[in-house]
Amino acid sequence: MSGAAVFGALAIAAGWALSPADGQAQSAEHGPLVLELSASTRGLALGGAFYAVGNDSDAVFHNPALIGGNGVIGGAMQRFGTASLLSTVSGAADWSSASVAVGVQTLSYGVPDRGAAVLSHDAQSLFTNWKTGTAEVDVSVGYAREVRGILAGITGKLVDQRLGGHHDATGAVDLGVAVGAGPARLGLAVQNLGPGLTLGEVEVPLPWRVTAGGSTPAIPVGPLDLGWTAAVSREADGAVVPGAGMEIAYWPVRGRTFTARFGVRRAPDGFGRPVTFGGAFNGDRLAIDYAWQRYEGGEGGHRFGLSWR
To answer: How far is CA 121 from CA 89, 190, 275, in A?
Structure first.
């Protein structure tokens, strides 16, 4: 397949995603919510803009073209007060002339009753304790390789949602491409293409998303290394969400790096305040990551991640 064909296929998928959907007699807002939250601790700290340079197994959740191998494995957890818990784990490896990755996301929270129409559709609602338990799971398997100078990738997903006595599962696909632009890398991804879920009598369409972004490698500035990333997404409800972030890294001893991260994004209502921040420590093959975002009412979401290379 040529590079032009790869871009053409992704453009068709993006056009399909951006076209209006047929009306349904009874439908909930898009879901599951686990597909709308940032799956990357690093990306969350950088205004939601996934870093496109380097190897990160969390790319299986964002843009499959960016999947890198070298035996990367990592996991993260984020609590929303005492009410909800988001967990992720992912791993990637080289396979022949390509890279493969596997990832799992889970989100558990509560809703006021057993009706699908009351499912959480924003992160702010995850801070409220309710009696009816809800569980969402996304299992992703990704594949990426270079096609005539263009990185191309595809992720297949199994999406499962449980609400009280209701349960349904469906499949979905993410498509992505990435290219080098001088020292930077640019990427385009179309996510969550597939049929929705049915919970009771209510249809829950998947939250498709189209994202374009780019990142620079670390640039030495005196004793520091500086990196930038930015992205803009078109969400299923028509919202346009831009975000950008900067990393400042300092390594006093080779193999020991301390990193500060800052980000800003125009988040949709219920998905947090605009400013994010975080940090990381890299020691040889082990990395510890942290990200923080404030929500309405002064509540904060803390995420901790651990990865091994």
So the answer is: 23, 20, 21
